[in-house]
Specification:
three-stranded parallel beta sheet, single chain, globular, 78 residues, alpha/beta
Length: 78
């Protein structure tokens, strides 16, 4: 099973885009891991479109809200 790294970032578009250097550093540290971002879905998907992350996860989804209160549960499920 491939390793996953999930970054949880709630905030505005500017705050989310400022995550790009951190995501790039994570990718250098763990080049084979799938890198995900959880947050406001529209903003997280922008990072995927820019190639900074492999997948986006919504922190606003009713289905996932309770899991995000305990990030370990979410990370372990991936």
């Amino acid at each position: 099973m491939a390793a996953h790294t999930l970054v949880i970032r709630r905030g505005g578009l500017g705050d989310t885009l400022l995550m790009m250097p951190i995501l790039a550093a994570l990718r250098r540290q763990r080049p084979t891991a799938r890198l995900g971002i959880a947050g406001v879905l529209d903003y997280a998907e922008a990072l995927v479109a820019l190639g900074a992350a492999d997948y986006a996860w919504s922190s606003r989804s009713e289905e996932h809200t309770s899991e995000l209160q305990s990030p370990c549960n979410l990370v372990c499920r991936l």
